[in-house]
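Example (one chain per record):
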Amino acid sequence: MKKIGVWLFLLVTCTISGHSFAQEFQFSVNLNYEQLVAQQKTDPQSMAQLQTYMNDFLNNTRWTNDEFGKEEKIKCKLNVNLTRSLNQGNYEGNAQLVVSRPVYNSNYETVLFTYVDKNFTFTYLPNTPLYFNENNYTEELPYILAFYANIALIFDYDSFSKLGGSPYVQKAFNLVNQARNSSPNKRGWDSNGDSRNRYWLVENLMSQQFTPFREGMYKYYRLGLDVATQNPAETRAKVMEVLNTAKEVNQLRPASVVINSFFDSKSDELYRILIEAQPEDRAKAYTLLVGLDPTKTQLYQRLSL
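Predicted structure:
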C-alpha cells in the first residue's frame, strides 16, 4: 500500500475485507452551466452526460501502480463553471481543483492544494467517444482532466514522503509538452499564456528552485499536522520552517502559482495553528505571513495582538 507508514491500520482493515482495492481517487465533479442557459438553449441531458464523463474518467482510470484501500482514496473536488459556447459542442469556462487528505489520528481533513484554471476550453458532443493517450495528444478534455489527476497525485504523495510526487510531476510535464504542441487551445498549455496556467504550474513543480518548498510539504503534513494531537508545539515549529522556506523561494520566484495557491488554500489553517504560539513566535509568523500573503493581512493581524 502506498502509505503503509502512515495508515498501518488500513492494512488490517483491507485484509479483513478481503483485499478490496480500488482506484486512486474519490473525485466529485460539479458542473455549473447556468450562464449557458442564459445565452442559448442548453440540453440538461447533454450536461448530465458531460458531468458523468468527467466523473467516470477521473475516478475509473488507473493512474498509478499502487494499491489503494477504500479509505485511502484521494479526495478531490472539481468545480467546473461553463461560461460560453460559441457553437455546438465547443465550451469555454473555468475550473477549480481542490485536493484534500485526512490528518492522522484526528477527524480533521486538510486541503492540500487549490488551483483555479481560467482556461477550461474543450469540445464535447454527447455519445461521441473521447480518447486519451498520455504519450500522444488526442483530445482536449481528457488531457486537461489527466493533468488535474496528476497534479492531485503530486500534492498527495509529497505530503506522505519527501518528493514522493516526483513521478507524477514528470507525467504532468509530459502532458503539457504534448498539449502545447498539438492543442488548438494553447492559452492553457503554453508559456505565453497567463502566469497561473497549466504550463507555469508544472514548470514551478519541475524547477529546482521549488524543490525546498516541495520538500517542505512533507514537513508540513507528515511531520507537522500528522503529529498535532500528540505534539502541537512540534506542528507549529514545522509550519514556521515551511513559511521560512516559502519566503526564500518567493524571493527567487515572486508571485509564483505554486506559492500563491498554497496560501489560497492555507490561510485559515495557518492562522488556527499559529494563534496558539507564544507571543514572540506569533509576531514572527505575522511578519512572514503578511509578506507572503498580503491579501489576507486582516486575518493575520490577529496574530500580532
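Caption: The first strand starts at residue 21 and ends at 22.
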